[in-house]
Design brief:
single chain; 248 residues; alpha/beta; 7 helices
Length: 248
């Protein structure tokens, strides 16, 4: 069995938020050029969002599911063990394949599992070449589907994972720019409260399952405290006076 590790390449490919039409041409080419396409799952029987998207472009036999503790936050030991096991599995693939792609929803450099994998592989396979192909993010897709403008003129843009706590979101909402919140489904009630306290709930919009069956895009004013899907996205646009170029 040949050892091609010294010339192996690991590429993280962003496959967008779910709509297969939002995978870039470069992303499709990278997936098709790879010898193996790894997709992250929580268990080997799961067809995750990344895999469902990849299947539009490469055959099933080219895809390999690798288990990650994707939602594990409380048990650091379990999380680290899962990262180590996944890294070892991908390192094994790199010993026998010239190119391995890792498909991740959204973008590989924005809250992606690929970050942790690349760090692990860098230690296990020091000579491997690691590249990324950018992908469309959920906030871009939600902005396009809802008509919410992310930024104008000199406005800042703040991206907050609500898993960091509602206080982080409240601080961002107190600022002058647009605030985007990721992973807020389980804290939907706290998010709605923060939006109301800041006076920014009327212009805010949230979405889940973008581009998929069951897609939901609604005004944040409709949030009633019920839990939403984990991968929900919120956009609270900056306060604007309605004039053209008012923030230039």
């Amino acid at each position: 069995m040949p050892d091609v590790m010294s010339s192996s390449r690991l590429v993280g490919v962003g496959v967008g938020p779910g709509d297969p039409e939002l995978v870039t041409v470069k992303g499709v080419n990278a997936l098709r050029a790879a010898d193996v396409v790894v997709v992250p799952v929580m268990d080997t029987g799961e067809v995750g969002r990344a895999e469902a998207t990849v299947l539009h472009y490469v055959p099933q036999e080219k895809i390999l599911r690798v288990v990650f503790a994707l939602n594990e936050r409380s048990d650091r030991g379990r999380r680290e063990a899962a990262w180590d096991a996944a890294g070892e599995r991908v390192a094994e693939l790199l010993r026998t394949h010239g190119s391995v792609a890792f498909a991740t929803i959204g973008d590989p450099n924005v809250y992606s599992t690929f970050t942790y994998l690349a760090h692990t592989i860098g230690e296990l396979v020091p000579d491997v070449v690691v590249d990324t192909v950018p992908g469309i993010t959920a906030m871009q897709d939600l902005a396009a589907r809802s008509g919410a403008v992310l930024t104008e003129g000199t406005e800042p843009l703040t991206l907050v994972p609500v898993t960091a706590g509602a206080a982080v979101l409240k601080d961002a909402l107190a600022g002058p720019g647009t605030v985007v919140a990721y992973k807020f489904g389980r804290q939907a009630a706290e998010v709605a409260e923060a939006l109301r306290e800041s006076g920014r709930i009327e212009d805010a919009v949230w979405g889940s399952a973008l581009g998929l069956d069951g897609e939901s895009i609604r005004s944040a004013a409709e949030l009633d405290g019920a839990a939403l899907p984990y991968l929900s996205t919120l956009i609270a646009p900056a306060r604007r006076d309605g004039s053209r170029g008012g923030k230039l």
